[in-house]
Amino acid sequence: MISDSLLQGVYLFKDMTAEERARFAKIAETVAVAAGGRIFYAGEASTAMYLIKDGSVQITAQSAGGEAVDVATLAAGGHFGEMSLVDDAPRSAAAEAIEATHLFKFGYDDMRALLAAENGISDKFYRSLTRFLCKRLRQTTSDLTFAREKNLRHF
After folding, report:
1. What distance lies between CA 6 and its chain's CA centroid?
2. Which residue would you say has higher pLDDT here, 48 or 141?
3. Is the pTM of this model over 0.90?
4. What is the full DSSP assignment across 109-144?
5. Angstrom distance (rounded) from CA 82 to CA 108
6. Nearest to residue 1, comparing CAs of 23, 19, 25?
7. Predicted confidence (pLDDT) per residue in 24-79, tens digit
8. N or C end of the chain: smaller count of CB under 10 Å?
9. 58-68, pLDDT tens digit by residue?
């Protein structure tokens, strides 16, 4: 079972009450992944978001040239797979366990049912998710600006 302290430490859930977090804990499924185990592939249908209990996960995408590009390395308390909850798009990257890893899997169907039934929880969750995605977009914009500036200097 997922602990309240783990959920409370994740920005998606920190604005919620213990009772509200307990509602999420009830829908979490425990998943064990061996070192090198693939959690999902880029391009496949998205069905769940994941929270890392222990271990670490590498997120990779493929460049236009076919090269693997490391996007992020996540450790305990990190989460991934949340974007498709909003847009239903296929996975944009792959996720693989770097070491033996234990995850909590939140199925989208269960999450959507909970969020539809509980407006207060839904408001807090989506507000936190929006702040996170905005922060990620700002970082991406900064990275892209830096990369383009660096590229232009070479010409």
Report:
1. 15
2. 48
3. no
4. HHHHHHHHH-HHHHHHHHHHHHHHHHHHHHHHHHHH
5. 9
6. 25
7. 999 999 999 999 999 999 999 999 999 999 999 999 998 888 888 999 999 999 99
8. C
9. 999 988 888 88
Helix (H, G, I), strand (E, B) or coil at 101: strand
User: Nearest to residue 24, comparing CAs of 46, 53, 56, 1?
Assistant: 1
Q: What is the DSSP letter of 34?
A: -
Is there a contact between 81 and 95 (Cβ–Cβ < 8 Å)? yes
State residue 152's pLDDT score.
60
Is the separation of the CB atoms in 76 and 52 below 8 Å?
yes
Distances from the Cα of 130 to the Cαs of 74, 81, 98, 146, in angstroms? 20, 14, 28, 24
Task: Quick: pLDDT tens for 71-119.
Answer: 999 999 999 999 899 999 999 999 999 999 999 999 999 999 999 999 9
Q: How far is CA 66 from CA 58, 60, 61, 62, 77, in A?
A: 18, 12, 9, 6, 31
Quote the tokens at residue 152: 């232009």
75/116 Cα distance (integer angstroms):
30
CB 97 within 8 Å of CB 35: yes
Helix (H, G, I), strand (E, B) or coil at 58: strand
